[in-house]
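Tokens as discussed.
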């Protein structure tokens, strides 16, 4: 029985790991290609001249800009060659299929091949892409797209640097309007320290599996694992919610769509860990197996999948990056530690004797 459970746990963990590798790109590509973290901080300084009802903000850890136009008039975003690129107004959101920016901005790298119809000198051909009054787009003017850091960063990578001030032109009817902003280099944290703390923590949690399950202390250890899974599961649910907020999700419907389309694995494993935590606290049969399985999925899908924040100064959540790193570390500690403890408890469980036949 124990060997069967261990074999099943190994198979499920292997399948979870394989699924993580296979789905890593789509999960990290939420919002087309939202980063899991970056060392470049993009900020907006406002719209000049001010337009009541026109708001611009940075979303997806700086990967996109979000413009909301409630002025009652159509506002155009101007492309890289001075051509109309986007139009946002009372009748919805439109993109100009003749603008090169329409294609270059489809990826954060700006490496899309331009079709023959892309001609900034041609009259605009507007194509409706959304209802409402909000549009989000990558903009190369607000990003650092080179593979190597700027010269001042290479000279002093441990210091914060202003990379550039940027502007993006808009048009309100015949009147020019400008979005202003800044792009800064922020030194990344020491990832080795975060990993070291995480490893020490997960080993401490895993040591709970050394307590004999049949002893009174073994029951308390199982309850402790259950409580930890509740906390880890809640954090695993909270982190993708934060990512959706950072990506500009509006309302419950927008949040659910984003979670189900881009953060489904972290969400499901977080909810599964919460359920496993209650199961362990109730000390149900096969609780050790449930703890090990839930912990493995939690560590892989909600921990490893978001561990890039250990080495990035800007996290894709609307709270300080230090909090994001603590959340991911706790998820990894809880998930991996629960897996180790559950496997140790399964291995130490008394073996059922095999009946012999004369």
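Sequence:
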């Amino acid at each position: 029985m124990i060997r069967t459970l261990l074999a099943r746990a190994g198979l499920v963990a292997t399948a979870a790991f394989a699924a993580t590798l296979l789905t890593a790109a789509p999960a990290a590509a939420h919002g087309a290609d939202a980063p899991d973290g970056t060392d470049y901080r993009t900020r907006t300084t406002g719209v000049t001249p001010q337009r009541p009802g026109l708001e611009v903000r940075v979303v997806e850890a700086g990967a996109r800009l979000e413009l909301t136009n409630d002025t009652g008039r159509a506002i155009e975003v101007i492309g890289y060659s001075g051509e109309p690129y986007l139009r946002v107004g009372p009748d919805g959101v439109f993109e100009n299929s003749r603008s090169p920016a329409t294609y270059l901005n489809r990826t954060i790298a700006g490496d899309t091949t331009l079709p023959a119809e892309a001609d900034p000198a041609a009259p605009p051909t507007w194509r409706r892409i959304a209802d409402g009054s909000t549009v989000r787009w990558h903009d190369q003017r607000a990003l650092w797209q080179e593979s190597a850091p700027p010269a001042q960063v290479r000279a002093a990578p441990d210091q914060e640097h202003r990379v550039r001030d940027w502007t993006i032109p808009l048009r309100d009817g015949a009147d020019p309007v400008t979005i202003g902003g800044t792009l800064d280099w922020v030194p990344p944290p020491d990832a080795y320290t975060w990993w070291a703390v995480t490893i020490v923590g997960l080993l401490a949690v895993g040591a709970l599996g050394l307590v004999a399950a049949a002893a009174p202390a073994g029951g308390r250890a199982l309850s402790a694992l259950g409580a930890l899974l509740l906390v880890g599961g809640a954090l695993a649910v909270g982190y993708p919610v934060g990512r959706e907020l950072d990506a500009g999700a509006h309302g419950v419907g927008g949040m659910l769509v984003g979670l189900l389309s881009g953060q489904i694995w972290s969400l499901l494993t977080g909810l599964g860990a919460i359920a496993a935590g209650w199961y362990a606290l109730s000390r149900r049969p096969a609780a050790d197996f449930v703890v090990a399985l839930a912990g493995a999925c939690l560590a892989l899908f909600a921990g490893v999948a978001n561990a890039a924040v250990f080495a990035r100064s800007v996290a894709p959540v609307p709270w300080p990056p230090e909090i994001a790193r603590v959340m991911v570390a706790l998820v990894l500690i809880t998930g991996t530690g629960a897996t180790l403890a559950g496997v140790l408890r399964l291995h130490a469980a008394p073996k059922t004797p095999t009946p012999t036949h004369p």
